[in-house]
Design a protein that fits this description.
Helix content is about 30%, strand content about 20%. Strands 3-2-1-4-5-7-6 form a 7-stranded mixed β-sheet, with helices on both faces. It is of the alpha/beta class. The mean pLDDT is about 90. It has one domain: Vaccinia Virus protein VP39 (Rossmann fold, 3-Layer(aba) Sandwich), CATH 3.40.50.
Length: about 240
């Protein structure tokens, strides 16, 4: 749900802004090659991001807990937990994951599983909520049982596509600790901002959120307050 004022402010002040989703895809593009095996961890029931890479990689794999629908030909899919992926050791070149890591109840096991299936020199790229974003802080105060109703009202997302949040790998310290425990190196870590999408339902709140977002985007020392973190992890070694 949006208001006219929110839409006007969005068009005026964010028309040329790079959305974190696009920054994430640009990072994937920079690491992908036509001979690679690309795995989307938590790809969604209709693999919306993964299908953009048809023809850009040798093998495309989607892993998701929910049932799949409308998956294009040429994409392998597995209903599996990310801590137990039914693939051989060292069989994947690049793992991508968007808006999933905030839901991981046991991130240590997931990091280790990613390390297991990655080839030497392979990478993981994930985009997730920043623990210190105001939206995340508010979400942590609200019990998970209310999240589906709130997300349905604010974003129009179906209840079955809203999952409990854990926020156990959503700070730089957590990422570095978990990566090290799995034998992965943190190659890059960036804080990203976007327009205050959760406040689109109210023009005044959107304006206040916009002022806050512009402030933390302008000053680098406030970067840790931005809404998203974009991370690249690398498995040591070189591809054979």
């Amino acid at each position: 749900m949006t208001t006219t004022l929110s839409e006007k402010l969005l068009c005026k002040y964010y028309a040329n802004s790079l959305h974190p989703y696009r920054a994430y895809e640009q990072r994937i593009d920079s690491l992908l090659n036509p001979g690679a095996t690309l795995l989307d961890a938590g790809c969604g029931r209709a693999v919306p991001v993964l299908k953009k890479y048809r023809g850009k990689a040798r093998r495309l794999i989607g892993v998701e807990l929910v049932s799949f629908t409308d998956v294009p030909l040429g994409i392998e899919t597995y209903n599996a937990d990310l801590s137990d992926i039914p693939l051989p050791d060292a069989s994947v070149d690049l793992i991508m994951s968007r808006s999933v890591f905030e839901h991981l109840a046991d991130p240590r096991s997931v990091y280790k599983e990613f390390s297991r299936i990655l080839r030497p020199g392979g990478a993981v790229v994930f985009l997730t909520a920043n623990m210190w974003d105001y939206g995340t802080l508010v979400a942590r105060l609200i019990p998970n049982r209310f999240h589906a109703a709130i997300v349905r009202r604010v974003e129009g997302r179906a209840d079955e596509d809203t999952f409990p949040t854990e926020y156990r790998t959503n700070t730089r310290a957590d990422v570095e600790r978990l990566a090290a425990s799995a034998g992965l190196a943190v190659e890059s870590f960036a804080y990203l901002s976007q327009y205050p999408n959760y406040l689109m339902f109210n023009g005044v709140l959107f304006f206040l959120g916009m002022c806050y977002e512009k402030l933390i985007s302008r000053f680098e020392f406030l970067g840790f307050l931005r809404g998203w973190i974009l991370v690249t992890l690398r498995k040591p070694g070189s591809a054979s």
